[in-house]
Amino acid sequence: MIRTPLRPLARILDARAKGENPDLIERENIRRRHDEMQDRARARAEGRLLVLGVFFFCAFSVIGARMGMLASSEAQEPMASATGAAIATQRADIIDREGRLLATNFETHSLYAQPPLMVDPVAAAEGLARVFPDLDKDRLIRDFTGTRKFIWIKKRISPEQKQAVHDIGDPGLLFGPREMRLYPNGQLAAHVLGGAGFGREGVEAAEVIGVAGVEKQFDGYLRDPANGDKPLQLSLDLSVQAAMEQVLYGGMKIMNAKGASAVLMNVHTGEVVAAASLPSFDPNDRPRPPTSGFDPSDSPLFNRYVQGVYELGSVFKIFTAAQAVDLGLVSSETVIDTSGPMRIGRFPIGEFNNKNYGKISVADVIVHSSNRGTGRLALQIGSERQQQFLGALGMFDPTPFEIVEAAGGQPLKPKTWGELSTVTISYGHGLSTSPMHLAAGYAAIANGGQYVSPTILKQKGPQYGPRVMSENAARQARMMLRQVVTSGTASFGEVPGYQVGGKTGTADKPKPRGGYYEDKVIATFASIFPANDPKYVLVVTLDEPWIVAYGEKRRTAGWTAVPVAAELTGRVAPLLGLRPQLEPGEGAGYTLTSN
């Protein structure tokens, strides 16, 4: 930079020649230089202020825009997260066939303690004992005053409990976000839904996993984040399920039964529209499995319609009659001699209450529930063909119903299937199956002879499997079932406006350690309706029922399971969209003429 000298020689000489003071020139140059320096400093300061002003303007603009976005957006809780491996916290909903909610997620909190951060451990323990009466105050005091640095107190708490813990005011009591499974309908369809619990968990999140029912069967689907907005749709109808459980509970109490189950199944699609097992439980507070006792049915967790594998009695007789018709051995009008005696080896085959029906038609064998008549049909069929037929109906394998408990319902068949087994199995003894197996078998009769697999998922249209009997055999079997209700052992099963066909079955209850009870039975009524054009099959089973009627103690299905099924049919049929109809009767013996 070229600096202007303060005492330029030319100006000094000129000033001396003119007699002026040369010092004035120096002072004037100093003043000019100071003015220039001040101008440059002012320009730099103004530039810096401008830059700073632009920076503050941008910062306040960003903050203002963000505040505006937050003010106009909907409030949302932050997603649960944890350090280390991520813990999945989302789980898809479960809905019924009409889209009504059966299971969903609910945001709550867990409660834990860090004793080193506590101000007054004793007061905190006393406060927690007041909020949670199930906690042991003395144990909390020992834990809080010991050497532990982290203690789980409650894995999930309600908002009211959280506020109560807040009011204790101890900084060592901390909360973690949680998602828990909520079943808004309580006990309704508990054995289908099963329940959920916590898997991996941390302070900031917990993994919700299925522990039973469809929650466990479809756990992979429900936990997949891609299905978060795609609920699992079941075949259940919530309103029908509610009516079923209400009627079944009342019937169980009236009939003094230990337990009860019912299955309502669409005979064309295999959809289980409702299924109940009593006693039940609340999946929101699922009880622990029993650790003692020999009878699993004592637990409310026991699912009677898939795990209850019993000899179901005379409900199997219609399968024998249908197969005999299908093979061309008989028709519904063929006469069978049911008179005794009848022996297979050293074992006599008798009738209920030692009755003797004599020579009756195949239809009357079913109407009167004749053991000897069914046994003689079975001998004509033969053991090999009988096994093939029952195997085609799915009676030898666990039912494919999509809940995890179904895999445990393995049917029990004889090790040696001889002539005696052929006869006894023809009337429902010697082969143990579940009510769900029975429902699938009756559905094949109802839909014209094709097997349908029971399913808990909503289907689109009929889902027919292989044909197991001819349409003619299925039609004649339906006619026999209708006659059982109109004039046979299931006369209490008639429902005005709905033609019901069905078969009763009463079997001695097996002991857990072998043998049979002398005074305890399993009573079953398997029915189809409307009998002229079947849409649904209903199986009702009562465990150890009895009722006093006409001065006598009655245990058979005709007195116990049938009235419950009739009440249930009358209650759910309108909910299923079935309009009552008058059954066509026989024409009168006269002709109308004009006057």
TrEMBL record:
Record keywords, A-Z: Carboxypeptidase, Cell cycle, Cell division, Hydrolase, Membrane, Protease, Transmembrane, Transmembrane helix
Residue ranges annotated for the Penicillin-binding protein dimerisation domain, each copy included: 88-223
Domain Penicillin-binding protein transpeptidase: 261-553
InterPro entries for this protein: Beta-lactam/transpept, Beta-lactam/transpept-like, PBP_dimer, PBP_dimer_sf, PCN-bd_Tpept
GO molecular function (one): penicillin binding
Subcellular location: Membrane
Organism: Ruegeria marina
Residue segments, region Disordered: 278-299
Record carries keyword Transmembrane helix: yes
SUPFAM superfamilies: beta-lactamase/transpeptidase-like, Penicillin binding protein dimerisation domain
Lineage of producing organism: Bacteria, Pseudomonadati, Pseudomonadota, Alphaproteobacteria, Rhodobacterales
Any single Gene Ontology cellular-component annotation: plasma membrane
Ranges annotated as spanning the membrane: 49-69
Cited Pfam families: PBP_dimer, Transpeptidase
Name the record gives this protein: Cell division protein FtsI (Penicillin-binding protein 3)
GO biological process, one term: cell division
UniProt keyword Transmembrane, yes or no: yes
